[in-house]
Design a protein that fits this description.
Bound molecules: flavin-adenine dinucleotide, ligand DLZ, iron/sulfur cluster
Strand content: 5-15%
Shape: globular
Distance between the termini: 58 Å
Low-confidence stretches: none
Largest sheet: 5 strands, parallel
Mean pLDDT: 96
Helix content: 40-55%
CATH superfamily of the largest domain: DNA Cyclobutane Dipyrimidine Photolyase, subunit A, domain 3
CATH topology of the largest domain: DNA Cyclobutane Dipyrimidine Photolyase, subunit A, domain 3
Structural class: mainly alpha
CATH architecture of the largest domain: Orthogonal Bundle
Number of strands: 7
Strand order of the largest sheet: 3-2-1-4-5
Number of helices: 20
Radius of gyration: 24 Å
Length: 518
């Protein structure tokens, strides 16, 4: 194995979500001179109390990636979480590496979260050697490209961005036109789970020796963190991620579209792909995933509504929210358009609630560090918005509890899509819904002690009790939103007495569910 020289060479940083062979920081790596720095640090593991599975996933995937590099003859300076010399911050470890050994430069791939990106820019300003912060080329749309698209537009809508990306990548296009004649087949993707239809058995990955080691370290060092470790089944290498993707494409994708918005008690995965952790860590490449899905359509193995719907999530939503985050941060982190001022009820953490939909969503979240999109959006997100929970508390929860959570993707989904705290940057209206939506899209309500048909009173579904009060409370902020014209007309017709009663009903429900003013 070539040994790096003691003088010169480049120190190359690889973060826990930068585990890709194609990483720009590794592009011109010279194994004879350079050193790759990877560090497990408490600052990253504790800036929120991440789910235990998320930390175990990152540590296991980092350790595996370091071995992969070493197998190619690369020297890796790998700092373990229990190394007594560990400074426990990424910047601290960069300084320590530079102090220990002479390097002529540092190469970094821009980092995904504003918080750490700022610290790395500050480091570049004081380091004794030149620091090259490079673009993260693992995304389909660069920052510049997104800015050009956004420039001069009064509204930024995912649908139009997505069409541009389709044109640019050629995905699902025939002679420059969308396959099938439409850009978007969402209207075919909103089915309630039909009676007798059950989700397919899903491949999960039994932890290998490296993952078992990481799980044991997390159990020992982060016992107070949220969540359970027993059901850990996340891919920690590119090969394992490929197994999950291949299984999804073959057995699940054909029905992805049909049941994309459905929920069912005790069914954590439904027809979702379970690849977000792998894409976010860099074990899978997003464009490659989209192309592989297109092949399934072209070969007649999956229908268009499924394949288009799946590609839209990655090429459309994932790239769009990343673009929005970097366009609007840091101001975006302060947004609270609805002046939400309540605390997050304790049952978001404990799962101890009589609301069947919420109890199931929190249970799967604790057990798997995962909930699928509709649970995140229409159960916990919707409830947090109807309750008026402060966006900082909502963000903290989402960033803590999911294995795939990184602020660049979590925040626009939470502050934008789910709670409308951004005032309409990501979505054109709040996704506020009463219990009727959850009843239509799931089997939760038939097993719930609340009555989803009842509008008011203690036994009525809390989503119903909160819904109209939410609209009334936010009347001044939302009534001019054209997409809310219908509910506001209904509210108007209720008259002042009934509107007052609805506010009172919502207030009583907030109290009953244990949220208080901060
Ligand atoms: P699938 O449903 O199979 O979708 C395929 C892929 O599309 C996902 O793996 C993901 O890469 C991408 N995708 C789908 N929807 C979105 C979206 N809205 N935004 C960005 N990418 C999307 N996703 C994260 O990766 N990290 C988060 O922290 C995160 N927080 C969220 C918070 C809220 C309130 C909401 C409503 C959504 C959030 N999402 C987040 C998006 C989405 O819920 C997850 O990507 C998805 O549930 C992951 O499971 P999957 O891989 O089985 O996804
Ligand atoms: C999420 C995370 C955790 C838990 N631990 C580490 C770590 O010890 N070392 C590391 O390099 N990265 C870790 N990460 C991922 C970083 O938080 C992530 O790179 C930034 O938030 C930017 O997205
Ligand atoms: Fe959820 Fe209301 Fe249905 Fe109960 S009745 S499961 S609280 S939507």
């Amino acid at each position: 194995m070539p040994q790096p020289s003691t003088t010169g060479g480049t120190l190359r940083l690889v973060l826990g979500d930068q585990l890709s062979d194609s990483l720009s920081a590794l592009a011109d790596l010279d194994p004879a001179r350079d050193v790759v720095l990877m560090a497990e640090v408490r600052d990253e593991a504790t800036y929120v109390r991440h789910h235990k599975q998320k930390i175990a996933l990152i540590f296991a995937a980092m350790r595996s990636f370091a071995l992969r590099l070493e197998g190619r003859g690369v020297t890796v300076r790998y700092v373990r979480i229990d190394d007594p010399a560990n400074t426990h911050s990424i910047v601290g470890e960069l300084h320590r590496a530079l102090d220990d050994q002479p390097f002529e430069a540092v190469a970094i791939t821009e980092c995904g979260e504003w918080r750490l990106a700022e610290a790395l820019v500050a480091f570049a300003g004081v380091a004794a050697v030149p620091v090259d912060i490079r673009q993260d080329t693992r995304f389909i749309c660069s920052h510049d490209r997104f800015r050009r698209w956004a420039s001069g537009k009064s509204q930024l809508r995912m649908e139009f961005f997505y069409r541009e990306m389709r044109k640019e990548t050629g995905l699902l296009l025939d002679d420059g036109q969308p396959v099938g004649g439409q850009w978007n087949y969402d209207a075919e993707n909103r089915k309630k789970l039909a009676k007798g239809v059950r989700p397919p058995h899903r491949l999960r990955i039994a932890p290998n020796e490296i993952a078992q080691g990481a799980i044991a370290d997390v159990a020992r060092l982060f016992p107070e963190h949220f969540g359970e470790l027993e059901a850990f089944g996340w891919p920690t290498t590119a090969e394992q991620a490929e197994d999950i993707l291949a299984d999804f494409l073959k057995t699940v994708l054909p029905s992805f579209g049909d049941w994309q918005d459905a929920m069912a008690q005790g069914e954590p995965w439904m027809w979702h792909s379970l690849i977000s952790t792998s894409i976010n860590l860099g074990l899978l490449d997003p464009l490659d995933v989209c192309r592989r899905a297109e092949v399934e359509y072209r070969k007649g193995r999956a229908p268009l509504n499924a394949v288009e719907g799946f590609i839209r999530q990655i090429l459309g939503w994932r790239e769009f929210v990343r673009g929005i985050y970097w366009l609007k941060v840091p101001e975006y982190r302060e947004r609270n358009f609805l002046d939400a001022d309540r605390t997050l009820p304790w049952f978001f953490w404990s799962g101890e609630t009589d609301m069947a939909c919420v109890a199931d969503t929190v249970a799967t979240t604790k057990r798997n560090a995962y909930a699928h999109h509709i649970q995140r959006l229409m159960v916990t997100g919707n409830l947090a918005m109807l309750l008026g929970v402060h966006p900082d508390e909502v963000d903290d929860w989402y960033l803590t509890v999911y294995a795939d959570a990184f602020e660049w993707v979590e925040m626009p989904n939470t502050r934008g899509m789910a709670t409308f705290a951004d005032g309409g940057i990501v979505g054109s209206k709040p996704y506020a819904a009463s219990g009727a939506y959850i009843d239509r899209m799931s089997d939760y309500c038939s097993g719930c002690c609340y009555d989803v048909k009842a509008k008011a009173g203690e036994g009525a579904c809390p989503f119903n009790r909160l819904y109209w009060g939410f609209l009334e409370r936010n009347r001044a902020r939302l009534r001019d939103n054209v997409r809310l014209a219908m509910p506001y007309r209904t509210l108007e017709n209720f008259g002042p007495e009934k509107r007052k009663a609805l506010l009172y009903e919502a207030e009583a429900t907030r109290e009953a569910l244990g949220t208080v003013r901060r």
